[in-house]
Amino acid sequence: MSESSRAPADPAAARIAELETRVARLEKVNSVLIDRVERSMDSQGSAFSLFQTAIGLERQIRERTDELTRTLRKLERTNEELKTAKDAAEEANRSKTRFLAAAGHDLLQPVNAARLSVSALSDTRVSEEGRRFVRQIDRSLNTIESLLRTLLDMSKLDAGVMVPNLTSVPIAEVLASLESDFRPIARRKGLRLVIAPTTAWAVTDPVMLRRILQNLVSNALRYTERGGALVGVRARGPDHLRIDVVDTGAGIPPDRHLAIFEEFHRGGTEADDGEIALGLGLSIVQRLVGALGHLLSLTSTVGRGTVFSLVLPRAEPVQPLALENLMTRSLQGFGLSGALVALVENDEAVREATTALLERWSCRVAAGRSIDAVVTAFEAEGRAPDLVLADYHLDAGRTGIEAIRVLRRRFGWDIPAIVVTADHGDEVAQQAAASSAELMLKPVKPAELRALMTHMLQ
């Protein structure tokens, strides 16, 4: 081989080749660097976006927190206002109840006076027209008395003042008193009233239970034109009884089952004697049932009749006490002729009406508005009274119980006594019982007063 063939290539070409190799390498390096830069920029962009998002969320959270704080503060103020309003309403209700309890005596006083006057008038010789007017007045007084008593009872029940006295009660005795009250009404309307016999006993308040059944039977007869009403008792399981009041009246549509328990809801039926329903009977029934913890249900078919069912706890029978109902026992004549009665009454109208009534029964009456006045009258009389009839609430905070004690001490013997009051509370009843005095609630029914006085003077 010649020297020329082993000689190196053209330096320029070699240089170009070397440069091309370096360029290719630099392009790769540049591509890698650009890729890294782009990835870095993408990463920084994502971080910035997250940063911006975080700032936005923080602002929204702060705004929502502020809004929630304002709402909570407003709610707290509203709750405070509601509590204040609730306390004010409860205090107003308590004040109303205290007022009604205190005013009950005064509210019923005029009714009591009118009733006694009407009774005295009915004993006089009046014409048939006069007797008709007396009956109309008596019905009106009955309506007023019923309304006042019901409103007072509803107020006491709503305020929790009327507390049930739960005891073992023979249901037959309650039903017997209802039968004697309502059989004449049913007979007058040409209806049948059936009281099924029972030996069952229940745990209840006898006064409240009678009031419940009285309203239910009254409604059954009022809204029944043909057929009649039935009251029956049956067992409901081993521990409870069910008392059903069934009628064959017009029935109650389903959409009125709740409305009939509202105050002043009337069925629109007027009794044969002109008495109009007050619309309070079922309202007070509902309150009494609630106070007793009993259950009341209703089933009715329009055109066929209605059934009210009262469920109450069963009680084991106990030995019945030989208690006489003084208000319903038969009266063998007046038995009051010549009796000397001490009448302590601070209301002039009631005092005059009662005096007139007692004198119609041939009693001698020494009456006064105060204890001292009556004591003075009997000192002039020269003998002790045969019976004391005293209103509970007298002037200057004194009571009829005190009057009875004063007269008994003055004359040295346990004079029979009757306390008359419009207060249904247990305190007055306990005071009367402790003083061995009978208690009568206003408005006084003359026949009941006469029967009780006759019994006490026998």
Write the layout of secondary structure elements.
Layout: H1 11-122, H2 128-158, E1 167-170, H3 171-188, E2 192-195, E3 201-204, H4 206-222, E4 228-236, E5 240-247, H5 281-292, E6 295-301, E7 305-315, E8 340-344, H6 348-360, E9 364-368, H7 371-381, E10 387-391, H8 400-411, E11 417-421, H9 426-434, E12 438-441, H10 446-457
Parallel strand pairs: 2-4, 8-9, 8-10, 10-11, 11-12
Antiparallel strand pairs: 1-3, 3-7, 4-5, 5-7, 6-7
Helix pairs in contact: 1-2, 1-6, 2-5, 3-4, 4-5
Helix and strand element order: HHEHEEHEEHEEEHEHEHEHEH
The number of distinct helices, counting runs of at least 4 residues, comes to 10
Write down the overall mean pLDDT: 77
Strand content: 15-25%
Uncertain segments are 1-8, 268-278, 320-334
Structural class: alpha/beta
Sum up the overall morphology in one term.
elongated
What is the total tally of β strands? Answer: 12
The Rg value, from CA coordinates, equals: 45 Å
Helix fraction, binned, reads: 40-55%
> What profile does the largest beta sheet have?
7 strands, mixed
Between the first and last Cα atoms, what is the distance in angstroms?
175 Å
Could you explain how this protein is built, in words?
The protein has 458 residues and is α/β, with parallel strands linked by helices. It is 54% helix and 16% strand. It contains ten helices and twelve strands. β10 (387-391), α8 (400-411) and β11 form a beta-alpha-beta unit. α4 (206-222) runs antiparallel to α5 (281-292). The N and C termini lie far apart (175 Å). The relative contact order is 0.09. The model is unreliable at 1-8, 268-278 and 320-334 (pLDDT under 50).
